Amino acid sequence: MAWDEWEQLKxxxxxxxxxxxxxxxxxxxxxxxxxxxxxxxxxxxLKVGQDDLAAIGDRAFQLFxxxxxxxxxxxxxxxxxxxxxxxxxxxxxxxxxxxxxxxxKQLRSLTEACAHISNHMEFSGKVHQxxxxxxxxxxxxxxxxxxxxxxxxxxxxxx
Length: 159
Prior knowledge:
The structure is a single chain. 70% of the residues lie in helices and 0% in strands. It has 159 residues and is an all-alpha fold. The longest helix is centred in the last third of the chain and has 49 residues, at 92-140.
């Protein structure tokens, strides 16, 4: 009795949806559960692809590279000027030295942030790609599970 009901449910499902599987998604017109209109502009939906992540990572690396070289251009001359001013007894020498130290500290923070962004964008892309492959593998294994339900224990020829 249960197998007959199962077969009936499968036949009804096959009539509703030809072959295949539909994964939950937004319709192509951009509609969704938030009401009408274009959800990309109306509701701020965010869509980011691997190319977008790579572009952000590349820009962060470029900024990291430029800050590493151009951010230190005045380091030697500023340090020299601060030392000269201090040896001549000017209070401005200590102030210039503090400004230089603060600049170097901020420069390190900024370059570390750029490196973190660059590395994270690369890492995120790889992780999400791995997750995508995992989901595809799981979904494709559903066909194998379905074969098990096609087997009818009352009919040995179906095995």
